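Field notebook, page 981. I keep forgetting to write these up properly, so this time I am using the form the group agreed on. The chain and the ligand, XIL, are recorded exactly as supplied. Prediction of the bound pose follows.
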Amino acid sequence: MNLTAGQWKDISLEFTVPADHKSVSAIVFHNDGQIQDFTFYLDEVKLQIITPPVKEPVEEPEIKELLKFNFDDKAAQGSLFTAAASSQIEWINETGAGKNDNSALKVTHIDGKSYNSAENAVRLTLAEPLPAGGVYNISVWVYAPAAGNEGKSTLTGPGVVLNGEYGRSDYKLPSNFGTLPIGQWKEVNIRTPLMETPLKTIDIRLVVNDADKHADVWRIDNIVISQVGDLQEVIIPKWDLNLASIADTYKNKFLIGNVMSPGQTTDAELTAMFKHQYNIMTPENDMKPQYLSSAKGVYSYTNADTLVNWAQANNIMIHGHTLVWHSQSAPWLTTGTDNKPLTRTVAKSNLMEYINNVAGHFKGKVVSWDVVNEAFDGGSGIPTDWKTVLRKDSPWYKAYENGADKTKGESGADYIYDAFVLARLADPGATLYYNDYNENEVWKREAMALMAEDLNKKWKTDERNTEPGRLLVEGIGMQAHYWIESLKTDTVDATIARFVQAGVKISVSELDIPSTGTTGKLTKEEEALQAQLYAQLFKIYKKYASSIERITFWGKADSQSWRASGSPLLFDKAFAAKPAYYAVINPEGYLNEDPDNGNTTPPTNTVGSGGEPNSDVKVTIDSSTMNKAISEAEAGTARLTVKAANGAKQLTVTIPADLVKAAKDSNISQIAIVSDLATVTLPISLLDKAGANVEMKIDKVDNSKLSDEQRAKIGTNTVFDFNLSVGGEKITKFGEGQTVHVSVPYTLQSGENPEQIVIYYLSDDGKLEVVKNGRYNADTGLVEFRVEHFSKYAAAFVNVSFGDTASITWAKASINALAARGIIKGESADTFAPNREVTRAEFTQMLIHTLDLVQPNAKSTFSDAKEGSWYYEAVASAQKLGIATGLPDGSFGINSKITRQDMITMVDRALKIAGITLHDEVAAVAFTDDAAIAAYAKEAVADMQKAGIISGMGNGTLAPQQATTRAQAAVMLHQLLQRLL
Ligand code: XIL
């Protein structure tokens, strides 16, 4: 509807109060076109009821009397009552002693004892607890006679406490207990809340701990307990700690977070759940300006600090949210008492005070900050200048606009750059994010990316920038507040791609997907749809794992969400896992099993299922299977799932040349052949040869054909022979960068430690060689490894154990893992000497073998490296590769100790030389003895710390100059080993 200036217009509107609304209490007349400075007048507003509401008769619940205690019969009821420590009770039968009769229960305070109400309570323990799910009425009559209460005038009123829960306000009733007049019976008449647990005890008490106001003698009579209405179903929410951890599932990909509020920190079950499922926390509200600062110079950190302390005590990282926002802001920052915008100069100095104070307070505690939140609004077309689509009615924008010198290019937009710069200067250790919602809308995605690019460019030449290689806006937070009904996940993919192009990191900062329905309950179909969307999102997130730092869900359970009515999360109000949870844990699996995910062709090429054991299965991939694999490819990997006969002995998969070419033309970089027998993932560069069919054969080898040495180690475990031929030509050795990933099933036997499961390569000359990167994956029951050549491989358990490592629980598994792989040896068969300092030669030996960096025939020029010694090959290899440069006197320091910083530096160099890049797994931490780290070691320390390889001495220090023990070296190299796949 449009208004014409200067003319009255009659508007009328009919509406129905929706059935789920109790009433309408306000009608808002507003300017829908968001026209600035728009004034309008209202007159003669009339409200008429057209159809009166149909009044549903309010049904009074039925009240059923269940129990009655009038103390007429001492034997039958008296024993159910007990007195707490400060009182004694007796059954009395005297004329007029009871409410309507002669009998009652008499309570007498014991001289000298406390008047604490709990200690004077009389407890009724019900013979049969009343069931959970009920609401109960309890009526009790209480009387304080004048005799025995001399000198007291006003006594505190009586009340009851259910199930002894003195800490729960809803179980201490009535909330307003009043007084107990002397010489008059008084009724306590309460209605319990819906009982989540059975009602077992009722404590009858006088409420206040005050001798003058607490009766010394009182009586109880005529207790009546009734049930109100029918029993209802009660859900006692409970977290299931046996569910797979989302954080663990994604530990090599991104951080997984959720929100917290201070009140939740005392809930031990919730804390245990949070630690199990998440590794980073965003305060849902308590770091917003509204809650941190009520006036200039006034800061209240109590609640935020409660969250910070909780997180730190539980080893959970913290993301700060948010420094600058138009909503939930502190008015003094931007707006005068007259409600008008402050000037640019004043707002700027307020911004500086605020950010210095707040970012300063949390410095070193938060790993990252949302510096500016939700600055864009009102765009539609794709902008070329991000400033045009900013939220112009943000109080920050308005204040910065007030006094901006337009001739110098100043505008309301400038608060954003200032905020980022101030945050960088106040806490250089924190990663700085811009955070926004509706981020998948094309105009907004573009605006966000353009802004990041623009501000980062500006920062490059800003003289305050002391870290030339570092961006100012380092990350973009995608709030990801979606809707089941409207989310199109391909727009998410495109958005991430745009942000990657802008060169920033990405976090999914506030993920939830509610339904627009408001019943507070999803239908089965909606639940399935929601799960599908979560699965699709996580498939996309995994694809971009190298750019995504963190995924934070905005709420733990549906009932606790800010969008609770749409049931947006992974866990329901009973805290039970919804389909969405399983979709997040295993997105591919969820989508494959879900019949409604849009796939019409079956996902597997099924051959010979139920066939003969020991059969020989041959499969040729057809074009529809390949096309489907191409269209569903993730991260460039097309998966061909082949169902071989149960117990098949041999599987041969042929991929026709044209299908290999089709895959290559579709930018597929790897083809995975997935089967129950084994899964091999082959780089396409290995397969693609014009006109050549690919044949991959997986054979189970007859163990009697092994050499004695091989059989001694492998036993009866399955030995696989992998044979690949392209165009009929057998390929045994792969080229540079062409490693093949393999996984084979392995069943752990009792007593077998997973870290001692090793993969052997069995050479044709009867020898064995450990594949260092091989490891057992407890989640899948598969042993995974990566190889540079084919032929025979087998998994086996290697039993090593040293008598002197048992008490070193933090290092024992690592020592065993390395020993099982032959990377380290004990001093004898039974002793490892974990606490002895490792020598430079020993460490070099360990490192070179962990990373398989032996350089055959390398020569060393170090003065003390003896040819033919056990360490020579490793030291010479390290020298040749530039991993170790030796000591200033030209020696290597064979028997010298190695400092922790030298060890770290060597590892860092070795990794670079081996071409291995580790992902950042933990936030950067500054060690308290940072100053003691030598300049040459600084970068390596930072790299290794972020990659999770080192974590310091446990007290905040790194102890860079300290010598390394054999146990410490083993732990570090084991950390490394686990990241080699
Ligand atoms: C929400 C909280 O979840 C609510 O408890 C609070 O009442 C309002 O704010 N975008 C954001 C978050 O950046 O801070 C908002 O959080 C949700 C939208």
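OBSERVATIONS:
- Confidence is low (pLDDT under 50) at residues 595-612.
- The pocket of XIL is lined by residues 284-285, 373, 479, 510, 562 (CB under 6 Å).
FOLLOW-UP: compare against the apo run.
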